[in-house]
Amino acid sequence: MPRLPKNVRHAAALLVLLPLSRTASAAEVAFESQIRPLLEKHCTECHGKEKQKADLRLDLRPHAFKGGPNGPVIVPGDSAKSPLLQRVLSEEEDERMPPKGARLTAAETALLKAWIEAGASWPETEADRAASIDKRLEHWAYQPLRPMAPGTGIDGYIDGALQKAGLRRSPEAPRDVLLRRLTYDLTGLPPTPEEVAAFVADNAPDAYEKRVDQPWPPRGTASAGRGTGWMWSGLRKATGLR
User: Fold this and answer.
1) What's the burial of 242, exposed, middle or buried (CB within 10 Å: 0-12/13-18/19+)?
2) What is the largest CA-CA distance in the chain?
3) DSSP letter assigned to residue 35
């Protein structure tokens, strides 16, 4: 007798299960007492915490609904499109699940089908909630910034380390030196004498900040040194030029 095509065999198997699925869905399918034990009995040995064949886990809610490399294996409300049930029903040795040991009974298969058809309800547990958190996002770099009390910022941290070492900060550089450093860093060129004089004469508390935030080049010329900052920075380091 010729072998029927795979899709025809799947359809025939589903038709056979129709009476059983009506019986199973007549009452609400209880996940914890009916479906979880079924998954633990037949699935989680290969698709659980210790082993995840085909990158698929069926022991925790977020992993189970995420599926594997080919997408979800459970489609709530549509058992015909759920690869999990199709693998259970398959007669192909390289597709059937579980691949070894006892297969699901007709009653277990009908129960699984009814659960999927009813929406695949899976009550979330603490373990499920923990599994839904991407551990990579727990890295300190992705945590929200905490408000800092005065003296606890980077300056406070540096001051504390200096005190422990018996050191203290260097005095603030003269204003002409500050402007030279800033202008070299931002344009790669030294400031003009007029710019130095104007900055030294500016006694506003935010004079330095205004200079940093002003549009560059400040002189409105094409010789702003864009692209030459690295060259000048390297030259200053090599020669000790302030």
Assistant:
1) exposed
2) 102
3) I
In the chain, the amino acid numbered 46 is: C
Report the run of H or E that residue 196 belongs to, with start and end. helix 193-201
Contact status, residue 89 vs residue 78, Cβ threshold 8 Å? no
The token duo for 141 is 């770099």
Q: Is the pLDDT of residue 17 over 50?
A: no
* Closest C-alpha to 184, from 228, 221, 240: 228
Token representation of residue 49: 């915490």
CA distance 152 to 29: 57
Model-wide pTM > 0.85 = no
Give 122-125's long-range contacts (Cβ < 8 A, gap of 24+).
Answer: 122/31, 122/35, 122/61, 122/64, 122/65, 123/31, 123/32, 124/61, 125/61
Q: Which of 188, 176, 174 is nearest to 235 (CA)?
A: 188
Handedness of CA 6, 12, 15, 20 (dihedral sign): negative
Q: Which of 15-19, 55-59, 87-91, 125-129 has the lowest mean pLDDT?
A: 15-19
Provide the 10 A C-beta neighbour count for residue 233.
Answer: 13
pLDDT at 80: 93
